[in-house]
């Protein structure tokens, strides 16, 4: 047998997609359980584990407003101030660690015009913008601003199971010309079955065709389908998958 045979020739069902990337949102989504009151040691342990495991992106928290989320009631990972992040990760370097750090900014809850400064001055390399359908105009403005500051951006339309297909189509049409690298299917309440993932993936992919955008998947585990639905989206072609350690996350948790 030739030594040049590839693994796909031996086992064609085993393939490697280098474009498939995993985002760990343990601290960000898990923090919804405890008001983001994680210790520095815990966040550092997640950070070190992500690097050791070869995770592509770690979402270290939210970039949300102190006016709405007082520091007296919420931990530092609700705001992701630069000094707090650097206290834990130091002068993080994505190139040497292989890990990009991300924060999520919520439409309507973030002072994004002032809080999201130049990427060259931050340990963050990505901003994910989360929004409801009625907030899409602000979300597109946030994506544009963060992109102009030098960050990779993603668009996370939340609560997709609670809106109509017409509303989804309107959002996709607005996001398509934006600089976001990825449009994420977000099953906020863990309500979706495989057939709905199939339909949504096709709808998202059709709307983003020709834009160069990837389709992402962020699943919740209310029906114990988060892992199965994430795999289904990957099989369909999603190249951006969210997960958390031990499935830690709001409600029933995220994809483990």
TrEMBL record:
GO terms for biological process: L-leucine biosynthetic process. It holds the Pfam family HMGL-like. PANTHER family: 2-ISOPROPYLMALATE SYNTHASE 1, CHLOROPLASTIC-RELATED (PTHR10277:SF9), HOMOCITRATE SYNTHASE-RELATED (PTHR10277). This is Pyruvate carboxyltransferase domain-containing protein. One of its GO terms (molecular function) is 2-isopropylmalate synthase activity. Residues 20-256 form the Pyruvate carboxyltransferase domain. InterPro entries: 2-IPM_HCS-like, Aldolase_TIM, PYR_CT. Gene3D superfamilies: Aldolase class I. PROSITE patterns: PYR_CT (PS50991).
């Amino acid at each position: 047998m030739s030594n040049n045979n590839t693994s796909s020739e031996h086992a064609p069902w085993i393939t490697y997609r280098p474009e498939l990337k995993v985002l760990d949102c343990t601290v960000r989504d898990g923090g919804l359980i405890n008001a983001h009151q994680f210790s520095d040691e815990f966040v550092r342990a997640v950070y070190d584990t992500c690097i050791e495991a070869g995770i592509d992106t770690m979402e270290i928290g939210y970039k949300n407003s102190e006016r709405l989320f007082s520091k007296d009631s919420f931990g530092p990972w609700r705001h992701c101030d630069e000094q707090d992040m650097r206290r834990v990760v130091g002068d993080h370097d994505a190139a040497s660690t292989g890990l990009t750090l991300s924060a999520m900014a919520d439409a309507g809850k973030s002072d994004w015009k002032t809080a999201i400064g130049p990427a060259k001055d931050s340990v963050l390399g990505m901003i994910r913008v989360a929004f409801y359908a009625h907030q899409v105009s602000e979300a597109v403005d946030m994506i544009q601003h963060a992109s102009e500051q030098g960050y990779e951006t993603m668009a996370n339309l939340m609560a997709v199971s609670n809106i109509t297909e017409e509303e989804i189509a309107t959002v996709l049409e607005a996001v398509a010309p934006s600089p976001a690298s990825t449009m994420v299917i977000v099953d906020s309440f863990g309500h979706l079955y495989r057939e709905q993932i199939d339909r949504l993936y096709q709808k998202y992919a059709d709307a983003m065709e020709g834009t160069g955008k990837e389709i992402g998947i962020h699943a919740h585990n209310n029906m114990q389908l988060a892992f199965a639905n994430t795999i289904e989206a990957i099989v369909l072609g999603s190249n951006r998958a969210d997960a958390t350690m031990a499935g830690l996350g709001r409600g029933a948790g995220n994809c483990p």
